[in-house]
TrEMBL record:
Annotated protein name in UniProt: Probable Fe(2+)-trafficking protein
A Pfam cross-reference name: Iron_traffic
Gene Ontology process terms (BP): cellular response to oxidative stress
Origin species: Litorilituus lipolyticus
Keyword Iron in record: yes
Family note: Belongs to the Fe(2+)-trafficking protein family.
PANTHER family, per database record: FE(2+)-TRAFFICKING PROTEIN-RELATED
GO cellular component: a single term: cytosol
Length: 90
């Protein structure tokens, strides 16, 4: 049985995540307010960011940077700056 959430990123009721995928308060906020669709969109951007900036997920600074980019993207609608990436036009 899937659950629906009002997705703060896409501004509509959509299928929510099955379980909390990110730890802590940020993870709870995502679980409660972000749809599966928006999370998938973020994961693609996250992969591009990690690759472009050659991030190391063992590095606390890289993790903090990524978390800030994630919160900005999901809750404030800010596109992460990815060199050479142009968002597809609708």
């Amino acid at each position: 049985m899937s659950r629906t959430v009002f997705c703060q990123h896409l501004n509509k009721e959509l299928e929510g995540l099955a379980f909390q995928l990110y730890p802590g308060d940020v993870g709870k906020r995502i679980f409660d307010n972000i749809s599966k669709e928006a999370w998938t969109m973020w994961q693609k951007k996250q992969t591009m960011l990690i690759n472009e900036k050659k991030m190391n997920m063992m590095n606390p600074d890289d993790r903090a940077f990524l978390e800030q980019a994630m919160v900005s993207y999901l809750f404030e609608g800010k596109e992460p700056e990815i060199e050479g990436y142009i968002p597809p036009s609708e």
